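Memo to structure team: turn this sequence into structure tokens by end of day. - J.P.
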Amino acid sequence: MQKRKLGKSNLEVSALGLGCMGMSHGYGPAGDKQEMISVIRAAVERGVTFFDTAEVYGPFTNEELVGEALAPFRGKVVIATKFGFKLHPQTGKQAGLDSRPEHIREVAEAALKRLRVDAIDLLYQHRVDPEVPIEDVAGAVKDLIQEGKVKHFGLSRLAFKPSVAHMQSSLLPHCKANTRCFGESLKGT
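Reply from structure team:
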């Protein structure tokens, strides 16, 4: 299997990844749990090392599935998960966006348990929350990186491309100190 490096962060993954959403959310009823675990493990056996999930898939059940399926392969695979949605407390349905720093921390802490990992390989914002400055989002993830709970940070479905000047003036001060943000190594910045 060919490999790819994401951004300039040296996070190496297989050229083919497995998005696991449809196994428990989104495309009809959830698949049989044991069957889905077998599919995920068969992907690993065929060289896939990059697996994508999110708390909103299920909700929560997809992260649990991925965590259980990949438990025997720790250190050999990369698991990406996402934050950014507000979930209704009773129904679990999407109830808007929420990328407030305290919510990012809650999502990450819960994902660590569901994924059965000590650190999330790649944590990214599922949708940009227009109510929360991107600097606050980056700062919250930077804190999680410094605590060893997250290894890499990214964005999904970004509606704008931050300029280099914007990143240097606004985002980089929140991401310095040997962390990685937006796929860029910030050592020595």
